[in-house]
Amino acid sequence: MKNEFIYKRKSVREFKDIQVPMEAIQEMIKEATQAPSGKNAQNWHFVVVRNKEKIEKMAEAVYEKGRELSNNLDEKTASNFMKMLKYYTVFKNAPTVVMIFSSKYESSGKDILMLNGASNEEVEKLESVKPGVQNIGAAMENLLLSAANMGYGGCYMTGPAFASDKMCEVIAFNKEGYNFSCLTPIGIPLKENINSPKRKSLDEVITIIE
């Protein structure tokens, strides 16, 4: 039997000009915090931005940083990068933006590997797992599923990360030990029927070992 609430989640980038009740946002975040996290670290912090002017200024900060970075690129690379900025700033269309910040999380076993004289390659392979970031991903997915189940939409975004310092300046947020991980716009979808990109078949993504 399908868990229908999972299929309600779509990547929503256009929203109605209607604010989301704070009670609904709080419920989404409460359900986000039910996500699993390694060592029960719960190494997340949620920042809710509901001021439309600040949301727009955050998007402007991403464009500004993007233009600054493109000045150091060759023409073709700069052009392709600048084209992507419209996708990195779609959150400007939403009445609410939820940002998730993460604190440092050490990979389990790293010290043991190093004490055993592990190679740099072995240590890098362990750290590539990035468990601290996986905790944030689990929380974000819970948040988006919760939002969709309540009739709202969002979009998991990491693209604006290159301008995280500038975005934080706009909202005057600084929590010691925490860095920006991702954000999602939250609002009522402008369109009712949103198609999801085709998913790979199960045969492509499953290996069964018996």
Automatic annotation (TrEMBL):
InterPro entries xref list: Nitroreductase, Nitroreductase-like, Nitroreductase/BluB
The name this protein goes by in its record: Nitroreductase family protein
Record domain Nitroreductase: where: 6-187
Molecular function terms, GO-annotated: oxidoreductase activity
Pfam families: Nitroreductase
